[in-house]
Amino acid sequence: MAQTIFSTRNPQMRDFAKRLIAYEIRANKSSGTKALAAFPVCEKLRPHLANLMGNNGFRALLSRALVRAEADVPSLRSMQVKADGSLAGLDKLEVQASPEELARGSVVLVAQLLGLLVAFIGEALTLRLVREVWPKLSVNDLDFGKGDKK
Amino acid sequence: MKNQNAADNGQLTKKAVSQPAKVTIRKIPTGVRGLDDILGGGIPEFSFNVIAGSPGSGKTTMAHQILFANATVKTPALYFTVLGEPALKMLRYQQQFSFFDESKLGKAVRFINLSDLVLNQDLNAVLAEIIKQVTAANPGLVVVDSFRTVMRKALATAGEIEMQSFIQQLTQFLTSWEATTFLVGEYGEEEARGNPLFTIADGLFWLSQKVERNSVVRKLQILKVRGQDSVPGLHTVRISDAGLQAFSRTLGFERKKTHPARRRRLSMGIPDLDKMMGGGVLEGDSLLIAGPSGTGKTALATQFIAAGLRNGEPAIMAIFEERPKGYTDRADSFGLNLKTPLKQGKLEILYLRPLDLSVDETMQEILDAVKRVDAKRLVIDSLVSLEMALAPGFREDFRESLYRLIVALTGAGVTILSTVEVEDAFTGFSFSHYTISFLTDDIIRMRYVEIDGQLRKVMVVIKMRGGNHSKDIREYVITNKGVVVIHPRSTDYDGLTTGIPTRTGPRKAQEEETAPEPKAKK
């Protein structure tokens, strides 16, 4: 199967997700080893995206990203997306998954969420949105590659 | 007493002069080509407008175009989405248009989703949220899309009075807040009557699309714009990569200018025909060349264009059937070079794609080209194929459209040569089946006649509005020089115009001859 923007094997998208997560970990001064580091990234994106698409819209998008991420990291199946678009099931996941799996799950989930955004509204608008949420994060060197949209 | 009156009058005049000036309403550009002219200059600032119409008619695209044309960081635009097309999908599709400016998103153009609020709370909460967002952002433009959804919710949960109150409060607030507002919604034409929203609106833009046979025609009607003189009627709209473009049904009329007192005679590129026309066609005239297929109308048109180019007059050929290469090749075969002026930008051959054109679009394309090359001559080849190129919905009004086309183009100072196919009846001598001869200043009729066992060609100048012309019926041939008029008028025949003349003169000895008209080189 060809690599797509949704694929967690897409190195650019994965790197982007890693960068966002690392930025959030530094900003929150959290170790990021145990808690799902994707959580604060998704939480920060939630109000901005909900403003655009409503809570229901954001919930649908995150649910889709989660389902896609579960294919790569099965332990994410213990997570759910609540009606307001926030993530639930973190406690259960932290018990079940190793720190490495948690870290990988975070990257995969954020990459899937960003990948969906890129597929829907394109790279330029996704980056603009990310810049709005994390104005100090450098994204100028990012390149998601050409022709990798589904 | 008289003096007293005069003094009073003087005072009155003085008072009248010193009266405060009436308010000047600034007009906001729409960013939609052609729409500002239709509206009478643009959208009145601080007005409360409804963009209504059927699905797919371009309502959302129009709203986006207006926003992107006007929104700035200092005067941003707020786009409230309500249960209709989610903003994410809007962004996905709207970014395909060239007017979409990604750099404006977030700061100059902001999207706010009100769906949850409309679903879960009442109208007061919706109004409170709009007031909160508008107060915070201080926008110059506000869009609510789809307002129809808000209205449905209002009617389902509250009463009509509550709905009217909501509209009233929203209008008052947004106008007081110096915002120009657009409420977008799907409405049927029958809903326009008695709808309080439409009553209260300052501007009402109605978009529709009509399917006729296999083609779709989009139309725009400005049902009202308070305080300014908009162009009434249905205007054609096209949606392309650039977004919406509107074509006023009076397009080009404003350019009409009177002919100069002394007009030049322009050569047709055929010396004998120039003589027949009293020295050539008058500058700024509309000339119709009518004749059946194969009589050389296109050849004559090509010579007309070439003569102009030789004289330093740029030209446009609007063609609808044959491809441009056919024209340049034909010109080559007549020893006329069209390729060089094409390359130099002195000639444009507009091959207008057939089957779904509107006359207004055609006119706009031609007017744009005329402006681009500063054209002095224009050929429309032919009116029949132009009619065929139109969407069926436009063919009904072809005669009226043609009138507008010709008036607009001659108004632009261009000399027009149009060709029209007519079927040769051997009982009559028609000029055109459109009965459009009144639209043209000059008419030349070409036709076949049977003489001495040959099907020959004759031409005659039927009318020249601007002066005298020859009444001679002249035989012509098409050679490798194009149309060439041969022989003086024949006095040996009667009834040439019927196509089956009667010999009146002596029969001359006939020579066996080869084909008198060498075919143009391929």
State the gist of this model.
The complex is a heterodimer of chains A (150) and B (522). With 150 residues, chain A is an all-alpha fold.
CATH C-level class of the largest domain in chain B: Alpha Beta
Quaternary structure annotation = heterodimer
Count of all domains of chain A = 1
Q: Tell me the helix content of chain B.
A: 25-40%
Instruction: Give unreliable regions of chain B as ranges.
Output: 1-7
**Main sheet: strands, sense, barrel of chain B:** 9 strands, mixed
Q: Provide the structure class of chain B.
A: alpha/beta
What's the shape of chain A?
globular
What does this structure look like?
- The complex is a heterodimer of chains A (150) and B (522).
- Chain A is mainly α and 150 residues long.
- Helix content of chain A is 63%, strand content 3%.
- Chain A contains four helices and two strands, in the order ααββαα.
- Chain A has helices at 11-28, 38-72, 90-96, 99-133; strands at 80-81, 87-88.
- In chain A, strand 1 (80-81) and strand 2 form a beta hairpin.
- Chain B folds into two domains: 27-249, 3-Layer(aba) Sandwich (Rossmann fold), CATH 3.40.50.300; 254-503, Rossmann fold (3-Layer(aba) Sandwich).
- In chain B, the strands form five sheets. Chain B has a nine-stranded mixed beta sheet, with helices on both faces.
- The interface between A and B is medium-sized, with 18 and 16 residues.
